[in-house]
Amino acid sequence: MENNLKRITAVLGPTNTGKTHLAVETMLEYESGIIGFPLTLLAREIFDKCVNKVGAEKVALITGEEKIIPKSPRYYICTVESMPQDMIVDFVAVDEIQMCTDHERGHIFTDRLLNIRGEKLTMFLGSHTMKSVITSLVDNIEFVSRERYSKLTYSGYK
Q: Where do the ATP-dependent RNA helicase SUV3 DEXQ-box helicase domain residues begin and end (predicted)?
């Protein structure tokens, strides 16, 4: 019997562990997808990378400041506030899901945690601090832990 459940995964770990890279690469393996980022500049950077990888005709950018929407895009790179919510896509990801706890923008991230889903896979990316919150709010979620393999050090002022 085929499992028809939509997969939901939380990829949790410290900064610089490749969570965003994993989500982008995973999205591009699907026919369609949306990723929401907390920052316009990050969305723009990822948009440019995706355009270079799959072509401008396949990738849309939607932020509060900018909209670039080709005729029939397969992938949408957005700020979390600008994520299309009525669109059916195979893959959905929300980056920096720990922003659910932010006093100003937390309600948007919480709404995405509770309501936005990909038809095949949904990924929430963020800090380990969110594990208990996500566990209490999202059923049937798989957790993936990312570890940092290099040491971060402070090199002082230049």
A: 6-141
* Number of independent structural domains in the chain: 1
Beta-bridge partner residues of 126: 12
Domain assignment of residue 21, given as a range: 7-144
What secondary structure does DSSP assign to 86-102, as a single string? S---SEEEES-GGGGG-
Q: Given its phi and psi angles, is residue 35 left (phi above 0), alpha (psi -120 to 50 degrees) or beta?
A: beta
- Give me the pLDDT at residue 5, please: 66
**What ranges in 2-72 are assigned the alpha helix state H?**
19-28, 40-54
Rg of the chain over CA atoms, in angstroms? 16
The predicted model gives 52-57 an average pLDDT of 98
Q: What is the CATH number of the domain that holds 54?
A: 3.40.50.300
Do 1 and 13 form a contact (C-beta atoms < 8 A)? no
65 pLDDT tier (thresholds 50, 70, 90) = very high
